[in-house]
Amino acid sequence: MRRVFGAIRPVAVSTAIEGLQQPVVLLLSLACFVLVALQPVVQLHTFGDSARLARDCGMGFLLVFGVLVAAFTAGSTLAAEIRDGTAATALAKPVSRPAFLVGKFLGSCAVAAVFAWCQTWAVLFAQRTAEAWVETAKTAGDRRDALCALLSLVVPALALGLAALVNARTRRRFGLWFFAFLAALPPLAAALLGLFARDGSWLGLAGWSLGLDLRVVPLAFQLLLLVAVFCAIATALTTRLATGPAVALSFLVLMLGFLADGAAAGGPAGKLLYALVPDAQHFWTADALARGGTIPAAHTLRAALYAATYCAAVLALGCVSFRKKDL
Amino acid sequence: MTEETTGGRATLEAEGLRKVFRDFWKRPRTVAVDGVSLRAGPGEVIGLLGPNGSGKSTTIKMILGLLQPSAGRVRLFGLDPSSPAARARLGYLPELSNLHKFLTPRETLAYYAGLFGMPAALRRDRTAALLRRVGLDGRAADRPVGEFSKGMARRVGLAQALLNDPELVILDEPTSGLDPVGRREVKDLVRELGAEGRTVLLSSHLLAEAEDVCTRVAILVDGRVRAEGRLADLLERRDRVRFTAAGLPDGRAEAFRRELEAAGATSVEVDRPALTLENYFLEILRRTRAEEAAEEAK
Ligand SMILES: Nc1ncnc2c1ncn2[C@@H]1O[C@H](COP(=O)(O)OP(=O)(O)OP(=O)(O)O)[C@@H](O)[C@H]1O
Ligand SMILES: [Mg+2]
What we know:
The structure holds two protein chains of two kinds.
Chain A: H1 2-5, H2 8-21, H3 23-42, H4 50-84, H5 86-91, H6 97-129, E1 132-135, E2 140-143, H7 146-170, H8 174-193, H9 216-237, H10 243-265, H11 268-276, H12 297-323
Antiparallel strand pairs in A: 1-2
Helix pairs in contact in A: 2-6, 3-4, 3-6, 3-7, 4-6, 4-9, 4-10, 6-7, 6-8, 6-9, 6-12, 7-8, 9-10, 9-12, 10-11
Chain B: H1 3-6, E1 12-22, E2 28-40, E3 45-49, H2 56-63, E4 71-76, H3 84-87, E5 90-93, H4 105-116, H5 120-133, H6 150-161, E6 168-172, H7 180-195, E7 199-204, H8 207-213, E8 216-221, E9 224-230, H9 231-235, H10 252-262, H11 277-297
Parallel strand pairs in B: 3-7, 3-8, 5-6, 6-7
Antiparallel strand pairs in B: 1-2, 1-4, 8-9
Helix pairs in contact in B: 4-5
Bound molecules: adenosine-5'-triphosphate (ATP) and magnesium ion.
């Protein structure tokens, strides 16, 4: 048993390391972080709903870029290993094919998770940056949190700089260290930000408050689940298809997933479609946060179970397809 | 290796292997291998020889369970080739080294050791010993394999194949891309592996090389075995005798020839044996190194 499943971890770890080192994954993450952080600064005509706009926009970016990141990891890693023969080398070791496939899937999920962690902070910062009604003794009006905007740009810049420094000094991998810093710096920035009020005035340690709207965290987690489903579909398809067709097909399935809800109400064809594609509506609950609502933990749990079941089913099919594949 | 672990059986048994590559519509496209049978036991070094496209790599991949045979049967250590227990006891060097370009040799070996489930301490020892053995223990051990020359990547591939101290070593063109020193080292290594009682199956185009290390060869042409057997049996010319001598005064050789012909021998040849180019090359290299060392010592 240990021999059969013990290989999942090394395969997943090397897949994750390879994914995080890909320049395109770095660029996507950097672009997403900056876009999410900057969009409240450039918003006009928000009709007083700026934070919500920042949140919805940020979640949209998170999903789109997350799927792109997954396409470049889950959609390419197994296909490339089969093409380059590295899969043959690995599978001549005591590694079962299902373990290899699951390792690949988990590795790409890990990359997606690192991405989602960083981008969730970007959304949190964006919400705080967004215009809000601020009243002080002297003034009252809609104001953006300039300090927060500044910090959320400093974070990626600093991550780049520090990773470059580490790479120059110790020859360690730039990509990996960039993600290490991009993941570690936002909590520090948030702690620093807590020392200031939204209008930039000093609160000090005694008055420290987080000042971030954490209700988006379960939302981001659900989107990560959806990206994981995408990873499972792409991984399973690459057992037989090259990266391009596999990613295109996975994308199609995901898009159908957004329509599935409506289709289920239709005839038997609609019901069949609903049964086959993942119901993406489970994972997109941004509207629930409007007017101060929260997402019930039970819903998040249900979404997680649904995602896990769907991934397991898709991967099981992938294993069947991979079992006799010539390498 | 005890009699018990092999059960007195061959390490490797392949019977009637056949592989038909098919196109998308399952129509047969190529018959790559057709009815190949092989057997090998401990201590044997089997050479799989043949021209390009004769089915050597395909045979090897079927033996490893990486390709599904269209017909035929493979047993490794009496087990199915895809069983983890069989794979834990074999080492495989693919035709093109097939390594992760983003990993360094050290990380590559650590990755594969992880696949074997090796404990950390053993992993470190084996990695260090193997990197030394393939001559990559210097700076190169910490550079990504993607930057390596073909021969350097080959060395990493070799180290990877020996990671688990395998009883069965399968090498697909082990010396391709290696320099003469590397070739010699690989030849010595293969001989050593055989002498240690392991089974080695290797494919090669280089006949001289196979001749030096193999105990048995199978010659594959168009997917079929056309000749097979112990090298000594295949190559021995039973109708010929050869003498080699040192210190014979000039002119005496001619006298011996006349004597042999008088005794009834036909087609007598007298010549001076030449060094092989390989030995000559290695000799030059050895001399240069020695001179450099002497110069440095001064
Ligand atoms: N994946 C494949 N699909 C279709 N045909 C293949 C495939 N792999 C190999 N072949 C065919 O099978 C035959 C044998 O190929 P193989 O690679 O086994 O030869 P080889 O003896 O290893 O040659 P070389 O000495 O060049 O390495 C060739 O005709 C080749 O075209
Ligand atoms: Mg070949």
